[in-house]
Structure formats: structure tokens, C-alpha cells
Amino acid sequence: MLGQFASQLIGIRIKKFLMDKEKLVKAEIETYETYRPDLIIVMTHLLMEAEAMGNELKFPEDGVCISKKLALEDKEKLNSLSVPDPCKGGSFPDYLYACKMVKDAITDSSVVAIIAGPWTIAIALRGASELIRDAMKDPAYVHELMELTTEVAIRFGLAIPSTGAGMSLSEAPASASLISPKMYREFVFPYHRKIIGRLKEERTNCTLESEGMQIPSWRRW
Predict the structure, then answer these.
(1) What dihedral do alpha carbons 114, 57, 172, 13 form, nearest 10°?
(2) What is the fold of 3-220?
(3) Which has the least CB within 10 A, 14, 57, 207, 219?
(4) Would the pTM count as exceeding 0.85?
(5) Residues ≥6 apart with Cβ < 8 Å to 183
(6) Burial class of residue 106, CB neighbours in 10 A (0-12, 13-18, 19+)
(7) How confident is the model at residue 211 (pLDDT cuts 50, 70, 90)?
(8) Where in the chain are the domains?
């Protein structure tokens, strides 16, 4: 998983890598040609789902993108949010295009797309400190938000197979470096089970990735 480092392989700025789908494809193919890995992970950033739901992003020339405005800075706006169409929302359509182009170009290695998990999306929309505070003071709100972000993850996940790529669910903020096992069991685990269960029903393979550990869905659940 090289992420934005792949931009250096073709001599472009990170901003160009993140915002130009053709450059993204070129960089991922160059990654394959340079390192010949068994697995190519097409990775841009984990704010695509939140962007499609209303976050405003900022793209520095040579840094990872950040949210300059969160859709849920005001928590009361939750009822105004809905599940976006992954084929129309934000930059995700360009990402689907890139995954398909990379998959078509690389036949000797596996190609894997990444979608954000529900806790990752919730943090992107609300903010990490705010969401953890909500979990302690207003758990019903967090569950309502997680129900929404779970549906978003499922819908975006179901868009991936059309590209031919495999899929990984990225959920690093749900690791023990940020939340406790108790909080994970209450606010995250039930929604992971729901996502993996739904994807399995659709015969879509997925791995859960947290802090660099990839766990096949059939083994974890």
C-alpha cells in the first residue's frame, strides 16, 4: 500500500495524483511496473464517502487532503444527510474509473480498491473528539449516525465489483489506538457484521483492515 507515495514514481504532486484520475491510473501502473507486487491497492484518500455526503475538502499541493468543513459540525444536521449515489457523489466516480482501468491493465497481480468503514466515515463527518464525546454523552445519536454510515459503506462497497477489483474496508480509527475495546464492541462491531454480512449475501469478497492488519471477512466473522 503506497498511497500518495505512488505520485513520486511519475513525478507529479500529490494534489494532481488525488484529483486527476488519469494520473492516478498511470501512477498505480507504474507502481506495478516498478515493484511487481502480488497486490496493487488503489489508494487515494478515505474522505470520498464523506465528501459525497457534504464535507468540503482541501487539497494541499504536496500533502494528504483534509476536510476544511465537516458536514456534521452541527450534530443536529444528521437528519439532513442521506446515502449518496457512489456513481455520482464527489470524487468516487473517478475512483471507480481508476480502479477499472488499473484492473484492466494489470493481469498478473491482484488489484484491490479501498472503501472507508462506517466509523471512519462517521469521524470524517463529525470529527474524532466530537464523535467519542457523543458516544459517552449521546450514544443514541452515535448509533443513528452509524446506521447511516453503514448504509453508505454498503452502497459504495457494492459499486466496487463492477470495476473487477477486489475490496478492502479501511477502519483504522476503530483500532485500540483511538477507542477502547468496549467502545468498539458497542459502536462499531455490530455495524461491521452488518456490512460484511450484506456483502457476503451479494457474493462480494472483502477484507477488514485496521492499523495495517488485513483480515479476510470469512475468517473474521
Answers:
(1) 70
(2) TIM Barrel (3.20.20)
(3) 219
(4) yes
(5) 132, 135
(6) middle
(7) low
(8) 3-220
